[in-house]
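Private note to self, pasted from the team thread so I don't lose it. Backbone tokens:
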């Protein structure tokens, strides 16, 4: 195990990872970037202000602080290729490459992948404009905005009218 670890993220998942890593006798220190109130100056754990959206800065931080392992939580960063960039720079990193992260971060990509490989999944259709979505005779009643930031916004509609209202709110 690495003596110094960087956990990237600010949520409960990253807090739990940092907490558990800090319990290991093989880990001297856990940095969490950007972290949260629970990971700020907590014994072997501390937050870091390193700009995680800039992969070059993260790589330099890892080299400057002798980071032996990086764990990445946020899907958006995984989909943006942070693991690919860290590995290319010789930094040990746990997480999927950008291509694999698309399965979790982009529902349209994952549904297309499932269809392409004959893996059973619910019927689905993606739309780029609200009029097309509302005029289709597709019987879907689940509406979800696309993109990592919108993953948790889901409407389960009781009628086509309710689904169209949700589509209008999301897309306009």
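Design output:
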């Amino acid at each position: 195990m690495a003596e110094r670890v960087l956990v990237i993220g600010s949520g409960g998942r990253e807090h739990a990872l940092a907490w558990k890593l800090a319990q290991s006798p093989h880990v001297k220190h856990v940095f969490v970037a950007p972290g949260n109130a629970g990971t700020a100056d907590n014994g072997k754990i501390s937050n870091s202000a390193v700009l995680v959206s800039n992969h070059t800065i993260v790589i330099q931080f890892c080299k400057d602080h002798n980071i032996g392992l990086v764990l990445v939580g946020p899907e958006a960063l995984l989909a943006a290729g942070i693991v690919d960039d860290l590995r290319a720079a010789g930094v040990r990193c746990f997480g999927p490459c950008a291509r694999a992260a698309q399965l979790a971060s982009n529902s349209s990509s994952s549904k297309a992948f499932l269809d392409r490989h004959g893996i059973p999944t619910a019927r689905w259709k993606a739309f780029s404009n609200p009029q097309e979505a509302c005029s289709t005779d597709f019987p879907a009643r689940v509406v979800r905005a696309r993109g990592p930031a919108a993953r948790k916004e889901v409407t389960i509609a009781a009628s086509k009218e309710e689904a169209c209202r949700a589509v209008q709110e999301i897309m306009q």
